[in-house]
Design brief:
The structure holds three protein chains of three kinds. Chain A is mostly helical. Chain A is globular, with a radius of gyration of 22 Å. Chain A has two domains: 80 residues, NADH-ubiquinone/plastoquinone oxidoreductase chain 6, subunit NuoJ (Four Helix Bundle (Hemerythrin (Met), subunit A)); 74 residues, no CATH class. In chain A, 72% of the residues lie in helices and 2% in strands. By secondary structure, chain B is an all-alpha fold. In chain B, 73% of the residues lie in helices and 1% in strands. Chain B has 21 helices and two strands. In chain B, helix 20 packs across helix 21. Chains A and C meet through helix 1, helix 2, helix 3, helix 4 and strand 2 of A and helix 1, helix 2 and helix 3 of C.
């Protein structure tokens, strides 16, 4: 399982590079599909089955189809490859530096113990909705999607309802912006 | 296998009282949907939509005022996701008042620009709702969704003029940079969640309080969250979109977003930084102070060289955001027993900024010619001879922005700088005072231009007529600028009560 | 079974995707690709959220990530609508070409 996770993470990293470095917009989009699918597999391995499905259906499915459709519609030209100069080196150094820094900090700065990360131990405030921990075995026994849905529709009902506002605004906006102008107004 | 094990977490449905306490947001949300439906009914008589929108906003305002008295010391709704306290009600009142003024000046302007569509009012209400959610947000999720809610509406509103390239480019620019900022915000939230184990502010605050050491990932998260907020409040160095978007968007939309976005962004900055990350104050104080000084310097210096009122006001709004941020940098510090604290200053300043900035932009909106905005400095020359009352109002707003007594602008600056002095941050206050001194030049330049005799007496002026609705909006803004300046105590006491009841309450900070 | 040893690698991957996305936003000129880089940044945030949630034994990370996916979908809808409108006005899609405003 750890090996599988390693391979998937490597593929995700390589395809993420492909998104940024491809000259053709379509290749960027296809690389992004690979990245998103690999992220979905990572979700699955991290015991987030519900997110795995959502990521595949909404993200790698609907959103990327929209992207590819728009690319086909607009047919953008390939970009000239920018000159490889000092700015590229700064970019490479920044990306590599941040990655290594975060990796090292996560390895050394966070203390682990049996319960998981240190954060799980500190500041567990006496609040009925937050005293429960969700070890993967227990979650799987109760039903993973069931547990997430239970939380989603009780404790986190307010943010969940707010997402409906976002979707409505987006729908209205898309219809408004792409509608042809009527004669007169 | 159909046998069900007991749920891991007791599934507790929220009480109906929580829904009732959400009344202002519910009214505005209902108005948003109702306006979309009304649009189908009213046909060409679109000004009915403006009337309906104002009715909904007024109802929301009423509910907020009721909530102000009802909330008492405040409590959270929906298991700590949302705050029901005087602070959010104060911000709600400012937001709803500003939105109503914007809607008053909109129909005439949109008609002249030929973009009078029903979606405008619905989207204004949706953006207002997003901001109200932001004002009361007590959970990282609600903050993120609130910011996205107001941003999505504003992206569309910036591009509301579909056939005009400037407007569309403003929308695209805002969208790309806004999405970039959401990426930072989200990553910061992920780090803060990971390091504290919670997404709800009350528990994050308590978790931070119980640890003494701050580890680097947590600090990185705090900084990234600040970057996300600073973008929305258009603080230097995350301000580059501001002048372009303000200029490209339709002026009524610029009026709306220059005021309300800042109010909502500062509400959430105060709640998250001053009160939740209070135990990390020594870490973020320097960053916030440097950003405040940079905003004051860059905003004021850039505003000096502008030749268009919209761009000048955009840069000046960056400087204004810098002054407000001084109040945040003060944190909860106060050396003397004086009642002027950073948060009180911020709240007073936000109210003052809202009425003044709306007034200044409303003048540009009302004067707009057919199909174009007459916002160049030359276009304003001699305004006082043709439209004495409008010019007088504009002069008043500029004086208030410049911080002259007895306007609200003066007291806003006074309270923020006094709070800085109280907290022994005199240097910060001096930067603010120096910035205000520079700002007097460009505000007075515009004010004096209006009173210069026009070059060519025979020239036909393209200025639009002031409608009754536009006049009412100007009158309300001018009255607010003067009355709240003279009766300082009204707003100040409100700001103080709001500050005293803010959630998350901190046990003992010093 | 995964142990906490993999956690630094997961966070490293998310940091890599995040900084790469941020760099892409700054260097790429095609708005569509810039938008994809923003998606990359949001996904980096999601990976971090889910990884933290997994090892904190908490479900909040997953639920937050779910919200983020909804937000990203909504943002893409609006963003692509704006880009098609610009395209219909007969403009080449290039971030550097957004110079109309910088007069």
């Amino acid at each position: 399982m750890t090996l599988l996770l390693g391979i998937v993470m490597l593929l995700a990293a390589i395809s993420a590079l492909g998104v940024v470095l491809s000259r053709q917009t379509l290749y960027s989009a296809l690389s992004l599909v690979v990245t998103l699918s690999m992220v979905a597999v990572i979700f699955l391995l991290l015991n987030a089955q519900f997110l795995f499905a959502v990521q595949i259906i909404i993200y790698a499915g609907a959103v990327m189809v929209l992207f590819v459709f728009i690319i086909a519609l607009l047919n953008p030209e390939a970009e000239d490859r920018p000159a490889f100069d000092w700015r590229s080196w700064i970019g490479i150094a920044a990306v590599a530096g941040i990655t290594i820094l975060v990796f090292v900090t996560a390895r050394n700065g966070i203390t682990y113990n049996d319960g998981g990360l240190r954060g799980a131990q500190i500041g567990r405030v006496s609040d009925p909705y937050h005293t429960f921990s969700f070890p993967p075995d227990a979650v799987n026994a109760a039903g993973n999607v069931q547990t997430v849905a239970g939380q989603l529709f009780t404790t986190f009902i307010l943010p969940f309802e707010i997402t409906s506002l976002l979707l409505l605004v987006a729908a209205i906006g898309a219809v408004y912006l792409t509608r042809r102008e009527h004669s007169g107004s | 296998m159909l046998a069900q094990s007991a749920p891991l977490v007791p599934l507790v449905t929220p009480s109906a009282n929580d829904l009732l306490d959400l009344l202002p947001e519910l009214i505005v949300g209902f108005g948003f949907i109702a306006l979309m439906l009304l649009d189908l009914v009213v046909g060409r008589q679109r000004w009915w939509l403006a009337v309906a929108a104002i009715v909904f906003l007024a109802a929301g305002f009423g509910a907020s005022v009721w909530g102000w008295f009802d909330s008492g010391n405040g409590h959270t709704l929906y298991f700590g996701s949302f705050a029901y306290d005087k602070f959010s009600m104060f911000i709600n009142c400012v937001l709803l008042f500003s939105s109503a003024l914007v809607i008053l000046i909109s129909p005439h302007y949109l008609n002249r620009r030929g973009i009078h569509h029903g979606e405008y009012y619905a989207l204004i209400l949706a953006a207002t709702l997003g901001m109200m959610l932001l004002a009361g947000a007590m959970s990282l999720m609600v903050i993120f969704l609130g910011i996205e809610g107001l941003s999505l509406s504003l992206y569309i509103l910036s591009g509301f003029s579909r056939t005009e390239e400037r407007s569309q480019e403003a929308a695209l620019k805002y969208l790309l940079l806004g999405g970039f900022a959401s990426g930072f915000l989200l990553y910061g939230m992920a780090l803060v969640y990971g390091e504290t184990g919670h997404t709800q502010l009350q528990q994050i605050g308590a978790a931070l309080h119980s640890t003494t050491q701050a580890d680097p990932m947590l600090l990185a998260g705090v900084v990234l969250i600040f970057v996300g907020f600073a973008f929305k409040a258009s603080l230097v160095p995350f301000h580059t979109w501001t002048p372009d978007v303000y200029q490209g968007a339709p002026t009524s939309v610029t009026t709306f977003m220059s005021v309300t976005t800042k109010v909502a962004a500062f509400a959430v900055i105060v709640r998250v930084f001053t009160y939740t990350f209070v135990s990390l104050y020594s870490h973020w104080e320097v960053i916030v102070a440097v950003v405040a000084i940079a905003s004051i310097v860059v905003g004021n210096v850039a505003a000096l060289t502008q030749t268009h009122v919209k761009r000048m006001l955009a840069y000046s709004s960056i400087a204004q955001a810098g002054y407000i941020l001084i109040g945040v940098a003060v944190g909860t510090l106060s050396n003397t027993s004086s009642s002027i604290t950073g948060t009180t200053g911020v709240l007073y300043y936000l109210a003052a900024y809202a009425v003044t900035q709306i007034g200044a932009f409303a003048v540009i909106t009302i004067m707009a010619g057919r199909g174009e905005d007459l916002d160049s400095y030359d276009g304003l020359r001699g305004l006082a001879y043709r439209r004495p009352f409008v010019a007088a109002a504009m002069g008043l707003f500029l004086l208030s922005l410049g911080g002259f007594p007895p306007t609200v602008g003066f007291f806003g600056k006074f309270f923020v700088f006094a709070a800085a002095v109280n907290a022994n941050l005199t240097l910060l206050a001096l930067w603010g005072i120096a910035g205000s001194a520079i700002s007097v030049f460009y505000y007075l330049r515009v004010a004096l231009l209006m009173y210069q005799r026009p070059k060519d007496e025979q020239q036909e002026y393209p200025w639009s007529r002031t409608t009754i609705a536009g006049g009412t909006a100007l009158l309300a803004a001018a009255a607010g600028t003067l009355v709240f300046g003279i009766l300082v105590a009204v707003v100040f006491n409100g700001a103080q009560a709001a500050q005293n009841a803010i959630l998350p309450a901190i046990a003992s900070t010093r | 079974m995964l142990t906490t040893d993999v956690f630094p690698y997961l966070l490293g991957l998310s940091a890599f995707m995040f900084s790469l996305g941020a760099a892409g936003v700054l260097i790429r000129r095609n708005p569509l690709v810039v938008f994809m880089c923003i998606e990359l940044m949001l996904n980096a945030g999601n990976v971090a959220l889910v990884a933290y949630g997994r090892f904190l034994n908490s479900q909040e990370g997953q639920i937050f990530a779910f919200m983020v996916i909804v937000v990203a979908a909504a943002e893409v809808v609006v963003g692509l609508a704006i880009m098609t409108t610009i395209f219909r006005l007969g403009r080449k899609l290039d971030v550097d070409d957004l110079s109309e405003l910088n007069e």
